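haha ok so turns out i had the wrong file open the whole time. this is the CORRECT one, sorry everyone. sequence first:
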Amino acid sequence: MATQELQSTQLLKEVMKKYFVTLGECENNGKKVAWCTSTGPAELLRAFGFEVYFPENHGALLGTTRTAGDYIPVAVMQGYAGDICSYLTSDIGAFLEDRTPLKQHYGLSHIPRPDLLAYTTNQCREVQDWFSFYAREFKVPMVGINPPRFVDEVTSEHVSDVRRQFESLIPTLEEVSGIQFDLDRFRETVRLSAEASALWRMVLETAKTSPAPLSFFDGCIHMGPIVVLRGTPQAVNYYQALLLELNSRVASGTGVVKNEIVRIYWDGMPIWGKLRAMSNLFHSNNSVVVASTYCNSWILDTMDERHPFESTALAYTQIFINRSEQAKEKMLAELMTEYQVDGVIFHDARTCFNNTNSRFGMPQRVQSNTGVPSLVVEGDLCDLRFFSEGQSITKIEAFLEQLIDAKLGVEA
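then structure:
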């Protein structure tokens, strides 16, 4: 049985509502809006005074509200393949239908109109195609950063390359914003991002304790500010409050479940439309998903305001999704040890090739190298047509039962 919901959840709702309401007001107050990819140059955009909107967050909201399936076919009719990123297809389909869950949840009549689009292909090339669609629709400038992909060790040459690309954005940002670049303002947004990121790391690391006070499914909800409010005091303030509550849980021995037996690592994307169902499934089996590569993607605490361009270039190049198979396996093994996991679940997300790590033998290699059992679950981030709930529940329950038996020394 799960413990009571985190009290910080109410504060989270207030923070996120204010963020979206502020975006919705830009059309009337003349404030400039920049769209940004989730691991894109938000700090630089905020240094120019842009309000920043993240379409991937909208895609996750379409998934969570289980409306993505209504809009994906609309994008397919426009020539977008049904097996490419379901964030992209559901978001474009919703736009073409003039629909958004932002209306019901935050009172916005439509998604914020961009004055500029800025992407980084450190996660995938699809974001460039996605933003290109909107650049054509809204007839606004688009800028991008294309870092070296699938890198093993991040070198100074990699960082220098990405730094130059960051700097090359400045003339366009100055032109669109009407504001001259101010290095001190950039230093401040980088400082705030670094502080929020360090707090986010500490939030996630509370789950190293047993019983864990936080699960992956909680993290998927509470990650909102580190994604959409990086570079602002609001993100820092929120994670200070959340960390205080989680540390209180650690001190009192309060875990996500009352009888934690098995600790799981989740690799890959969340299944947004089934977050609660998946959470309940693990909790009912005395199991907690204590860590994930996904939530760790926004640990960007190598940022340093003393070296704003170099440190942001490094932070956004070294993220997990942008690394080689060898580097990913090393990072996985380290996290599995730190969080004392008993098993790993790899989510094979049908439409997210870039954040699926189960297709080239990684589960088998990780299990061979660490001795930790693994399971592959087929599904998707938004398109529930690719997720067989009954089959997945059966597989996961059998996997957890085996892990519990092994941990408790029960004979097979």
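The longest strand covers residues 343-349.
again sry for the mixup
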